[in-house]
Design goal:
The chain is α/β, with parallel strands linked by helices. It is about 35% helix and about 25% strand. About 50% of the residues are buried.
Length: about 425
């Protein structure tokens, strides 16, 4: 298993290009199932999850190819409507094929995702939504088996805000008969990026980015060209790493408008931030101040940035409370941070972090994607060497992370 070794204590300095967003790329690739014509995507990040999604789509009969700097997907010969357990278990986002398959082919068999490290994460809202649209759904042998002659538009209320739930039903509604209204829908920028791509394919969608999304189904969607939006979590991760190390960095090809709460928290921590066009510059002088964080659906503070801010708080001046309201088990990085000398108490979904002057390098284990990013940040600030085990989690969601950090001056290497 691959590991990362980091010699900490070097402030990050320089410029880094932000990649396309994983959480926009995955649903948008699935939108390729909605049409027999070609979907051309640019700015698709080179990530393990993107590779897994491409393999899954290819197994279904989607032809994937390259054309200059675009990756093309053609769903003209889809013949297999199944997402097997091996793929769904490694990448929950595979559930995103469910809506498009039922909408276009009237049938899908998708493995239930099962448990994952950060919580139970059921898919009941995806299923209930499709049932409300007229799909007949059975759970058989661990698989969701859905059938429908043609989905019908429906009014669907989400009891809990779900990002992939909103995306699945938005794609299903795009080819349904009549109008679908999603209430208490997710407002994440990645939902808007998917809606932009679907509109380019001929879908009729309005209200994306608000909590009520209206989709008027059409008979057929066409091919389109779409550029994947920048990754706001990768952007936030680099900014926090720079702030924690007392560095000065500039992100290129990103967007400040999708990072508002994160930039506010970094400013509260004492960073100076300047935004110009698609660049964000951050400079941190001295020790960061501890900042309270409470995760909630967009536009509030993202759960995918909670672990990184926990790392920042570990070495900040003062104490901070970190409250996780989205996932029930997303504090697994706490035990590992304690191995580096962090002082953190956890009670239910709340952590209290008391900042210490220094962390000390040690061997730690990555438990999930964003927890891994948190350990990288902690390793960058810790004195001496930190070795992070099980970094395959990191490769699922960060494009060439050690090359990018190395360019910013970090002393980091992959142990194979
Ligand atoms: C997406 C993101 C993930 C992010 C999360 C929350 C992708 C590919 N992944 O995950 O990076 O951490 O949003 O911002 O975009 N829930 C149910 N029933 C359902 C669906 C969800 O109870 O049918 C619950 C979940 O267990 C969780 C909450 O709703 O507690 C939010 O989950 P959801 O927004 O669905 O997360 P994902 O879409 O899986």
């Amino acid at each position: 298993m691959q590991k990362l070794a980091i010699q900490g204590g070097i402030p990050l300095r320089g410029e880094v290009r932000i990649s396309g967003a994983k959480n926009a790329a995955l649903p948008i690739m699935c939108a390729g199932l909605l049409t027999a014509e070609t979907l051309r995507l640019s700015n698709l990040p080179d990530l393990h999850d993107v590779g897994t999604m491409r393999k899954l789509l290819q197994q279904m009969g989607v032809a994937a190819g390259y054309a200059s700097n675009e990756i093309t997907f053609n769903g003209g010969n889809v013949a297999n409507w199944e997402a097997p357990y091996d793929m769904v278990k490694t990448m929950r986002a595979a559930i995103l094929v469910l809506g498009p398959l039922v909408a276009r082919f009237g049938e899908a068999r998708v493995s239930l995702p099962g448990g994952c490290a950060i919580g139970s994460r059921p898919v009941d809202l995806h299923i209930k939504g499709l049932q409300a649209m007229g799909a007949d759904i059975r759970i058989e042998h661990g698989y969701i088996h859905a059938k429908a002659r043609r989905l019908k538009g429906a009014r669907i209320f989400f009891d809990i805000v779900s990002v992939t739930g909103t995306e699945n039903l938005m794609m299903a509604g795009a080819l349904a008969d009549g109008v679908t209204v999603l209430e208490n829908a997710a407002r994440e920028p990645e939902v808007v990026d998917l809606a932009n791509c679907l509109r380019a394919m001929g879908a009729k969608i309005s209200g994306d980015g608000t909590d009520t999304v209206t989709i008027t189904g059409v008979e057929k969607l066409n091919g389109a060209t779409h550029r994947i939006m920048p990754d706001r979590i990768e952007s936030g991760t680099f900014l926090v790493a720079a702030a924690a190390t007392g560095g000065s960095i500039t992100l290129r090809e990103t967007r400040a408008d999708i990072l508002e709460t994160v930039l506010e928290k970094l400013t509260e921590a004492g960073a100076q931030i300047k935004v110009a066009g698609d660049t964000i510059h951050l400079e941190m002088k001295g020790r960061p101040k501890a900042v309270n964080v409470r995760t909630a659906p967009h536009p509030a503070f993202p759960t995918d940035m909670q672990a990184q801010f926990m790392a920042l708080n570990c070495i900040a001046a003062g104490s901070a409370m970190v409250v996780e309201t989205i996932f029930e088990n997303r504090f697994m990085h706490v035990q590992e941070l304690r191995r580096l000398g962090a002082q953190i108490d956890v009670e239910g979904n709340t952590s209290v972090v008391r900042g210490v002057e220094h962390l000390e390098g040690a061997t730690v284990m990555a438990t999930d994607l964003r927890a891994s990013a948190c350990l990288v940040i902690a390793g960058l600030v810790a004195q001496g060497e930190t070795v992070i085990d099980r970094i395959y989690h990191l490769d699922r969601g960060y494009e060439h992370i050690e090359a990018k950090l190395e360019k910013l001056g970090a002393n980091i290497r992959r142990l194979k």
